[in-house]
Every structure is written in structure tokens, then in C-alpha cells.
Amino acid sequence: MTKYILIGTGEHARVLADAMRACGLALSAVASPDVPVPGGLLSGLPHLASDEEVLAIGPDGILLVNGIGSIARPHKRRAAYEKFRSAGFRFASVVHPSAVIASYVEIESGAQIMAGAVVQTGARIGGDALLNTGALVDHDCRIGEHVHIAPGACLSGNVSVGNSSHIGIGASVIQGKTIGADVIVAAGAVVISDIPDGATVAGVPARAIQRCA
Question: 47, 75, 139, 148: which is the annotated catalytic residue?
């Protein structure tokens, strides 16, 4: 029997635990330096206090679930995913039962699609990508690895989002646009042109802004 171990105990981890419960998937343990909140979804589960304890178990019969959240740049989330993958572990994809997934959608290892999200036909969701609550991804979009599409964001058809980019809450991207890697699209922005790697954009229409040091 496959054992599921959740990495993290924070807000996103708890949302994932609830999604897994809705899917009928039972967690076997939680791994984090932080102890789960007493009385919450994660309380009472066996607690692994470090990555080393997970590594010591070994990857056989284990699927990890990446519960580390991604507010902007997903450094910690990506680092955990890559660390365990390099040690031979596999990550489970989690798709909430209320998400709408069309035919001919490719969902790679470790991707997470949360409640109320919609993914239309021909889309590809990269490994460890997170489509958060109510995100809309239309036909033939290409979502890279470790991307976070925040709650309520909307991507029209044939949009490409590069690895480790963040599309903020309520942002919109018109059809056919390319967003590079390591991009931040601010909350509520409207993207009407291609965005190069590493840019931070905000506003309507979205324009490059200076990052704070």
C-alpha cells in the first residue's frame, strides 16, 4: 500500500490535506520542523521533524506531497521538491474533486490543482506546479515546473508560463502570450504582451516595475 507523506505543516499543507481527504487519500505522516496545529487536520499524524528522517525511510512505497506554499518566488518549495527527487522520491499529484479537468490535459508529477480550478483541453501542467483555488487555465496553455497560478487568476488560450513564475491573485493573461521563467505578475494585473524572464509586472495593462532590494 502506498504511503503519503506531506511535506510542511502550514496553511497550504492544511489545504492540501483537506483536498486529499476529499479524494479519499489518507496521509501516513507529516514532515516539518514545525509541529502541526493541535486539533487541526494534521494533528495526530506521525510527525517527522526533519528532511533527514524522511530520507532515512527511503523512497520505496512512498509518495511525497509538497505542502510548502508559494506566495511569490517558490524557492523553498522548489528546493524541497528537487532535494527529494534527487534522492529517488516521487511526488503525488493532487487534484481536488471539484476541479474541472478537460480531456487531453497533461498533468505532470507533483502538480496540484485545487478546489474550483478549471483546466481546458490541450493544456499541460508542469511538475510541482500549483493551480490554486478557482484558477482558470484555458485550452492549450503550457504551465512550467514550480509555477504558482494564484486564486482567481485567468489564463486565456495558448498562454505559456515559464518555470518558477508566479501569476498573482486575480491576474489575467490574454490569449497567446508568453510569460518567461522567474516572472512575478502582480495581483490584479492584466497581461497583454509577452513578459521576459525575470521581470516583475503590475497594473492594467501590466508594465515592468522596479523590484525592492
Answer: 139
* Catalytic-residue membership of 139: yes
Q: Is 136 helix (H, G, I), strand (E, B) or coil?
A: strand
Which of 204, 188, 124 minimizes the C-alpha distance to 154? 188
Peptide bond into 205 cis (omega under 30): yes
**Grid coordinates of 8:** 510542511
Query: What is the rounded CA–CA span in Å between residue 115 and residue 1?
Result: 26
pLDDT confidence tier of residue 39, bands split at 50, 70 and 90: confident
* CATH numeric code, 3-92: 3.40.50.20
pLDDT in tens, 62-114: 999 999 988 766 788 999 999 999 999 999 999 999 999 999 999 999 999 99
Q: Can you give the residue ranges of every domain in the chain?
A: 3-92, 93-213
Listed residue (83, 78, 122, 87) closest to 101, CA to CA? 122
Using the Cα atoms of residue 184, residue 124, residue 10 and residue 29 in order, give the sign of their dihedral: negative
- Chain center to CA of 56: 26
pLDDT per position as a tens digit, 161-209: 999 999 999 999 999 999 999 999 999 999 999 999 999 999 999 999 9
| Cα 85–Cα 79–Cα 89 angle in degrees, nearest 5 | 15
What separation in angstroms does the CA of 204 have from each of 61, 138, 162?
48, 21, 21
* Paired sense of beta strands 200-202 and 207-208, if any: antiparallel
CATH 2.60.300.12 fits 93-213, yes or no: no
